[in-house]
Protein 1
Amino acid sequence: MEIKEEGTSEEGQHFLPTAQANDTGDFQFTSIQKTPDEPQLEFILGAVQLVPTHSDPCKDLVAPVRDRKLNTLVQISVIHPAEQSLTRYSSTEIVEGTRDPLFLTGVTFPSEYPIYEETKIKLTVYDVKDKSHDTVRTSVLPEHKDPPPEVGRSFLGYASFKVGELLKSKEKLLALSLRTSDGGKVVGIIEVSVVKMGEIEDGGADHITTEVQGQKCALVCECTAPESVSGKDNLPFLNAVLKNPVCKLYRFPTSDNKWMRIREQMSESILSFHIPKELISLHIKEDLCRNQEIKELGELSPHWDNLRKNVLSHCDQMVNMYQDILTELSKETGSSFKSSSSKGEKTLEFVPVNLHLQRMHVHSPHLKDALYDVITVGAPAAHFQGFKNGGLRKLLHRFETERRNTGYQFIYYSPENTAKAKEVLSNINQLQPLIATHADLLLNSASQHSPDSLKSSLKMLSEKTELFVHAFKDQLVRSALLALYTARPGGVLKKPPSPKSNTEESSPQGQLPPMRRQDSIPHHSDYDEEEWDRVWASVGKSLNCIIAMVDRLIEGDVGSEGSGGHSKDGEKDPLPADSITCHPREDWYEQLYPLILTLKDCMGEVVNRAKQSLTFVLLQELAYSLPQCLMLTLRRDIVFSQALAGLVCGFIIKLHTSLRDPAFLEQLQTVGLIVQYEGLLSTYSDEIGMLEDMAVGISDLKKVAFKIIEAKSNDVLPVITGRREHYVVEVKLPARMFESLPLQIKEGQLLHVYPVLFNVGINEQQTLAERFGDVSLQESINQENFELLKEYYKMFMEKMPPDYISHFQEQNDLKGLLENLHQNIQAKKRKNVEIMWLAATICRKLNGIRFTCCKSAKDRTSMSVTLEQCSILRDEHQLHKDFFIRALDCMRREGCRIENVLKNIKCRKYAFNMLQLMAFPKYYRPPEGTYGKADT
Ligand SMILES: O=P(O)(O)O[C@H]1[C@H](O)[C@@H](O)[C@H](O)[C@H](O)[C@@H]1OP(=O)(O)O
């Protein structure tokens, strides 16, 4: 078969478009048998032996090779059977200075990849003369031809095989001849052997030598029979949220000279787009409702009416803007990835940048298989809005300070009071229809004349009505009522009233100057302060009447004489005895009907007044500094949306991977989950603003609770309910999985998350900040979040069962780690990356969800996650110490993260220059040839 090179494709794990992949034309191809969700095929390249001296292939092939040892790499290409063209798929790392290289990077084809027994794989071996030029290539080189010398590599030989030949071969191993470009001369041998993740290499001891820093090291591949991970990993449901996986395979030696196998996987998520769309819809609903309530505030005096008109016109514009963004996003059907280069696009503002699951699956001898997940994502930040004036942390503080000190145009309510007003309004909106439904159910029970059903309907009605009455037990409602009264035509007070509430506003951290305020609700001769009490109390009273009536009806029904009604709390019924009399059984409905009507009327009156007064509070919040205050809300929504998309993705993945772990479920239910963010932003220039956005976005995640529900259809995407101060994310699980959950979770218990952020800037900008700028932002974030982490730990220790805790303490010295983290934060050392390592370790030990972020989650993030992966292999899986750097280089050179760079900027180069790298902490520098000037 003639092999045609694919003209323009860049090396990488690009999948053929589905239509193309499945289009096998007239041919019938043989699928590879495998368990679902397992890779289709994985193989490693055993020893490559190039024929030495007198028949030295290199002598004929590449003259300069004679004078030095080879630096070899194998490039793997795929020839789809229906086509005649060849697609570059992946490469091994470069093994330096040997003629019999041993490659640590293997090849894996994920389950989605269109590969058949008839698919041909081509292996091309190169000698890399100049590493710094090698991976900087951006186009495909012609096969069978020496690359131009300036590219820095020379062709040594090639071999090819059909996938079916490998699968059917004895021991699933092929020893293939490497040939010259014309296919004539044999220049060496290359071994290919199939890998199954559930198996360590078969057979007896197989001694392979390789050179490590000048030393020969004996590596022994031994047979063991470890537990298969497929049970744990077999989560087809996850495919509904994870898309386009990129998979890489490595084998690394352990300290006792055995092999461990590592599968690295990176997937994007459709939640990147789904969550923003859900959230924007929710904001639109919330804002439309608020705008309507502002319109329905009733008659206001001219000053307030003008203010209202102004607010409404801006708020309507804002809703239109959200609607436009939603329309634009809805056009992106099926999208699951926003690239770093799109981070400033207005229509994609709510979408997180470069969100991925970065997973490492370790299969090592004698140890249980392990999965390590990190969500990598660009720091949640409002790139389109820009950072000229800083980010949310600063902007919100400045806005609040100014608002507090600007007097008479409007009334100042603290953020806490405004939040409370929103909460009460939301409670009212939920409770009023609920009470009405329960009241109707009570009437229904009455018409059925069923005492039991009457009692249980009454119980529900009482509970909800008590909640309703309780919702207004706040001074804020009173002060808002008075404020609104004074804003009505003719209701002008000498000074605007100032709110007084149980949570009287105090300056956060004592930073805000005291505001002009009055100590009590101002007196107004026409204002009847007790009127509200009477209206409010009428709801309780009418409930008591209903309770008393139900008592009497039931008592009358069982034949006993009416003995005077008792309210639920045992008090004598407030109604006169003759107003509630015992009637014959058929009158139950008629007896209760007028009382229910009264309850509904009273409730309506309370709702009407409270809604208007609290909406008036919201009007004050909106009135100050239009349209800036709305832009601030927009900015906060944008940042939150990006943060939430990541969180939901992390939560769902965690839930799926830990569903069979009872301790995890217990923790989820009783304590909640820690969510740890590693930030790599510098505290210099624009990144200060990003960090300020990120800190608020992550802290806002506290407002999110999760609820797990059973999926009733194939639509398993999460649903968001609630409002800005309190969101509930409903995660759907298929019946089989849902059934395995603890009862409380199945009953809809809300599950909480505890986000923490630790940031350490590592690049050259951070050097500038340390020398000439200010690092206080980073210091205070780390200090504040340390306190939050400590609180979580305390809660964990208190709430988890004692048996679990004693075992946990034996295994982990969390106290020591926390102490160490604290000391490192206090130490104020420059670029103290120890802070990130400790925080990540603590998070893993606490079974939390890990995130790593930098501006784009592309370059610095890639350095950090690969370092974390190799550190885990060293600390938890006995990675041979001599191979630490080599493993790190393999992952950075040919692993998932270089593919991440490629998919973001269409170029396989980390965007660092030499000067930048000199400023990086040592282990954050990528290998030679993988970085350089890139158009980001
Ligand atoms: O993924 P990042 O580390 O945020 O990418 C940075 C990179 O670190 C830096 O060296 C380079 O100059 C660019 O600013 C990268 O950011 P982009 O957002 O432009 O990809």
Protein 2
Amino acid sequence: MTTTENTAARTPAAEATVLECSGLDAGYGGAVVCRGLDLRVRAGEVVALIGANGAGKSTTMLTVAGELAPLGGRLSVLGSDGRASLASRARLGLSYVTEERSVIMGLTAAENLKLAGVRADAACAIFPELRALLGRPAGLLSGGEQQMLTLARALARDPRLLLADELSLGLAPQIVSRLLAVVREAADARGVGVLLVEQHVRQVLQVADRVYVMRRGKVIVEGTAGEIAADLDAVQRAYLSAAPGDETPG
Ligand SMILES: Nc1ncnc2c1ncn2[C@@H]1O[C@H](COP(=O)(O)OP(=O)(O)OP(=O)(O)O)[C@@H](O)[C@H]1O
């Protein structure tokens, strides 16, 4: 684990970089919230972004996704520069999933997949649990089932880069593990590069290769998941359990 920017990744250097930013500033309406971010995700790598509430994780994800324009520095997503829109990044192979249940509740699971141009078989190959639920309105699925549908829909499109922002917010630990295991499998079997924001730190450390810890809009610690896990109590005390109001970016 290191507080500098030179942590060696576990993945071979030869693997393609699907996301890279250096000195990236991000924020809203010209006001910088995240400053000088250096991040990298390679194909087949699962990278976790963790930090206390308000540390800047979602702002970072929105910027990488193309929903917020970068305010400075350099950003490359699947070879496109930081000005490309979410739609054009999606065409290059970006999938972005969030904690919001993005399914249409009045349509069945099958109809939700069809609307997205995803074959039900492809989605069920990722989550076999969905097979029995295809005819059910998405609004009648549990929260965990809705997120399985969301994740299956995203992964069935064969993305090269998956951004997942608190996919498992509010879900039971067993479902969190199931969702994270599928994310890991997508990285291993299909070479998807993954950047994950996750509050379930212990669980995410079991599937991640590397971790960036954010505080007050900056990456202040980075390391392999093993390094962070070995020092987790200290990391949690120092960076993940800030007192309310302590996370105002500075
Ligand atoms: N639309 C916005 N306009 C202005 N400031 C915002 C906006 N959204 C978030 N912020 C501010 O940016 C900072 C970082 O917020 P962000 O949501 O990125 O943090 P986070 O680490 O994702 O937190 P959480 O874990 O609570 O979701 C916070 O101070 C927040 O108040």
